[in-house]
């Protein structure tokens, strides 16, 4: 018999209580029609674990396929395939064999109806439902199966999830179809896991396309749509990476024309300018030419090409989202998800919702009584949940701000190490761990699985948004913006706190933001990929150490899969989160680091194969689940895309020196010819050191006289107030932000309007297929009715003949 699901458990100190739960649960599973078989612990590799093997017979599968409205084939599709793309031969090196890309033929499908079994293409009842559908049905039964006795009213004792949480069972999983490194010995097994490992999970296949149809068939549509999105995102990154490299090359080629950096490095200009201390007491005076190297580095990213690249990325992100909608619509058609309404699919209310909601009311759609949460209770839970989320978001922000200042004011580490420690701490803030725990046990009670996943995704992303981006937002938009001037510095919590608002490093805040993005895109992503691959491998190696010592013939499939890592409920969430956080870094702050898309491209090429390798070799087979799109992540991507236009406009205007340089070049340059000579002297203000309060003076040093700002010098009637050039620059910055935002938004909305979400070819095919399906169903019903009428007519004719014979016989006897 085919094993559709496996449960494992061990005897422990609470054995009697857990054994009673198992007996009731397994008895109820058998009442539901499932067939069970227990393997004794003496036959297991550790001599402690029992394995309960579950088989779903045809009758159970047919019944629940009808309930879940699972679509199954009833006729081979006769719609001609799409025409070949011109020059398709150029893509041949990247193609996979046709039997891998299309593991099953195209069929017309319809929701399964148990009363119309003869309508569907059922050659063999044992193989009609694929393994992914079978394990989905069995899991559906187990999540709603109670483990209390019939004479008790303990309605909360329901479902395999609670039994796993309280330790009654240690694991629950469907089986892989074979070993990943060799084909199954059973000829009826398709060895899909082996093919996935050979053509998809191998690192040498990094340049090949993904076998999305095979992934969907083996793991289900939900995991298939994730890899489809990840692959498409990686493809689109190629164009952003090329444009980023072009902008970087422009910065390199214009390296020698950078007059500003030459003046800073000139010992007769930058070497003669002594700058004010960047902090109180502990910071000494410094000469401007000490920033020579960082000024040259800054020019590579802070040049005219950066403005163009920031606008390009605003349009790129729109093209990415719009083209993904088209790719997603095509997948919906090819994977038969067009008529899949997740609300209908989730008519089965979450067991947790049924247990916690005692009220009942009539469902207007199903006309059945269902549990519901009263409005006052719903409002109270919503307010409590919202307050909790807001509290933890604020807490994470405050902790990040405190760490930022603590690290920055520590004089024991260098600036580069400070940046590394700052980002790695803030991106792994413990606050988010506890906030996520509270988020997962949310006070709201979502009614359906779809609603639960979407709400959880939104809330947890809010925490992670603050967690990952707080340090970058601080450096880009707050650091060095509200510092005051010598003699009148601004302090974070007032002068009594002695926490003076931080100034940018001598090289400027843009190069600091660039450094942080470089740490993220090169260092942290690389560490993340190594960690993703290494941790499951080590855990599985340790967990299977006893089983490996046994002969292969006694090391059963369920034991091998039991020793693999469990793919948790939030497994796919964290895979999405990793990529969406990366998407935020390459869009929200890309104006400071045009090479970010290139590093993201390299990372994602590796990420696809690492994830594929984990799924095929290190994880147990997940329960198959349906999904027609990427869910709440699509809305999150749209919000990040819109926000990125604003953040990049502000980075160019306020974090970089682009606007001040342009104002000087066209309005304040010296001489008759527009040139950048004299910009350094023009961008600095002079201060009389004798007027600096003792609290701001360094402990020892030279006499400073310059600081970065546009203020009148001492002795002027408006000394230390902003000059007119400051207001001109501010007006230019605001004008740039307004113009850039409007231009990019207009182009974005025009592109979104111009590109339809569903390709015209797909629309036509959907309509054609619906027409043909309806026609076949109509013909089936007509033929069935004719057959019934003919059978009725034949039966009436037989009855009439028999009656006539009886009458004749009676007449003959009377005669």
TrEMBL record:
InterPro entries found in the cross-reference section: Anoct_dimer, Anoctamin, Anoctamin_TM
A GO CC term assigned to this protein in UniProt: plasma membrane
Anoctamin transmembrane domain: residues covered: 215-769
Keywords annotated in UniProt: Cell membrane, Glycoprotein, Membrane, Transmembrane, Transmembrane helix
GO molecular function: chloride channel activity; protein dimerization activity
Major location (coarse): membrane
Membrane topology classification: Multi-pass membrane protein
Domain Anoctamin dimerisation: 1-212
Protein name, per record: Anoctamin
Record bears the keyword Transmembrane: yes
Pfam families hit by this protein: Anoct_dimer, Anoctamin
Family per record: Belongs to the anoctamin family.
Cellular localisation: Cell membrane; Membrane
Transmembrane domains' residue ranges: 226-253, 305-324, 382-404, 416-435, 456-477, 580-602, 636-656, 734-755
Record has Phosphoprotein as a keyword: no
Protein's organism: Cyprinus carpio
